[in-house]
Every structure is written in structure tokens, then in C-alpha cells.
Design a protein that fits this description.
257 residues, alpha+beta, Thiol Ester Dehydrase, Chain A, 5 helices, 10 strands
Length: 257
């Protein structure tokens, strides 16, 4: 007897489907990370920098970075956590020509220390790059542009137990050097070379000062090529690492009328 296959029998009973409505997906806004500035104000040397009249611009990390072609999410997102880099302030000291009134409340802005290039400065920078004058700066110069970065380091950026990872130290030096070059010339730059000498371990958690300028800062410029020096310290003179770096400024072309 041939084998038959069971076939489903179509139902003649009317099918009633109830309409089920689902609530719209709940949208949540992720709050911006908080700069734990109390980590800085707990130290007298940090408060001295905040009240220094020769530092007219103090800025926090900014999300997102408004500058064209700049992301910097490594500092503004990846490391911006309560257990990595808890607080970050960039301070720019242009020299003797720009002071602020310390009787006013210290204004810490969320933004970049880089000034917005104006048409006239674009033409001047294009001419400077084209001239390629080889200019060297004295190592002991005091009244020259400086950039300083203060960071509060937590425990999630360690290499050894309770010791800051050397790669984070290098990144901090790279960040402050690039900030100095961009602040002085008004344009962003790319890192060409870093040479770092590690002198001693950095114990975490801690508050660090990363310096550029004066005895550590611009060393030489020639067209788009800029050389810098700097170091990482504890704010009271103990140096943890020294660095030499080379940067290449973005090419600026003079606009044609």
C-alpha cells in the first residue's frame, strides 16, 4: 500500500488577529562626562596656576571637537572616565602680551586653546611657511608661549600595579606638544617624531602637570616643520619623563582674490 503523507487541512474558521501596539523605543540622552576639578583644587600648586594672570585661556576637554579634521576621541571619550583620566585642563600662556585680571572669576571654558584663523593671519601663515626661515629658540627663554596640561589620573590606565602605563605618558606629552604648536601658529598639526626618556615610575592615582614652553617648548621652526621639548612632572619639580618632538603643520595656501 503506497505511503501517504500527512497534509495540513486548511481551516475554514475565520482567523481573527488582534492588533498589538508597541510603545515607541525609549530614547535616552547620554550625559556628558564630568571633569572632576576637585582633584585639582585640593592641591595648592594647582590653585596657583588657576590664579596666574599670565594664563588667559584655561579650557576643559570638549565633545565633540569643533575644529575641522580633528576628532581627538582618545582623550575626549576613550580616556574620559572616572577610572581613567578623571579631569583634564589645558592652560595656554602666550607670553607678556596677554594677561587676564585675576580679580575676576576664573573662566574655565569647554573648548580648544587654538584660536580661529582669520583671513589676514591665513595670509601671514602662508607667507611664513613659504619663506622657510630657520628659527631656533633659546632653551632658557622665559617669555615665550607655553602650554600646560593638568591631568588627574585614576587606576584604569596602569601598566604595572599602581603605575601609569608608559604609553599614556607618551600620549600626554604628544597632546600637550601638539596643543602648543596649534596655539602658537593657529593651525592643527601632525606628529612626525617623539623621543621620550622615562626617568621614574608614576604612581597612580595622581595629579600630573605636563609642560611645554620656556625651558621646555618651541625649540625650532622652519616653514611647516616645528620642533618642541617638554616633560611630565608632579607640579612641585619632580620630573617623571622628558621628551623631544617634531610636528608638521597643515599646509596653508594664501587665498587668491
Amino acid at each position: 500500500m503506497p505511503r501517504t503523507h500527512d497534509c495540513p487541512i486548511a481551516s475554514t474558521t475565520p482567523q481573527h488577529h488582534s492588533l498589538i501596539s508597541f510603545p515607541p523605543p525609549r530614547t535616552t540622552t547620554t550625559p556628558l562626562p564630568i571633569e572632576h576639578l576637585e582633584d585639582f583644587t585640593a592641591h595648592e600648586w594647582c590653585n596657583s596656576l588657576l590664579s596666574d594672570p599670565t594664563i588667559p585661556k584655561i579650557s576643559k576637554r570638549h565633545i565633540p571637537d569643533p575644529r575641522e579634521g580633528v576628532s581627538n576621541t582618545f582623550f575626549t571619550r576613550t580616556l574620559f572616565t572616572p577610572t581613567a583620566i578623571r579631569a583634564f585642563l589645558s592652560l595656554y600662556r602666550p607670553g607678556s602680551t596677554n594677561h587676564r585680571d585675576t580679580s575676576e572669576t576664573t573662566n574655565i571654558v569647554t573648548g580648544s586653546a587654538v584660536r580661529a584663523p582669520q583671513p589676514s593671519s591665513s595670509a601671514a601663515e602662508a607667507a611664513r611657511q613659504l619663506a622657510k626661515r630657520d628659527i631656533s629658540y633659546a632653551a632658557d627663554a622665559t617669555d615665550v608661549p607655553k602650554t600646560l596640561i593638568r591631568v588627574s589620573i585614576a587606576s584604569d590606565v596602569a601598566g604595572g600595579v599602581a603605575r601609569l602605563h608608559g604609553g599614556v605618558t607618551a600620549s600626554l606629552l604628544d597632546q600637550v606638544m601638539g596643543s602648543l604648536v596649534a596655539s602658537v601658529f593657529g593651525y592643527t598639526c601632525a606628529t612626525s617624531e617623539l623621543k621620550i626618556k622615562y626617568l621614574r615610575a608614576v604612581r597612580t592615582p595622581c595629579v600630573l602637570l605636563v609642560r611645554r614652553g620656556g625651558g621646555g617648548g618651541l625649540r625650532r621652526e622652519k616653514g611647516r616643520w616645528v620642533e618642541t621639548v617638554g616633560w611630565v612632572e608632579d607640579g612641585m619639580g619632580k620630573v617623571f619623563a622628558e621628551e623631544e618632538g617634531s610636528f608638521v603643520l597643515g599646509k596653508v595656501r594664501e587665498s587668491k582674490m
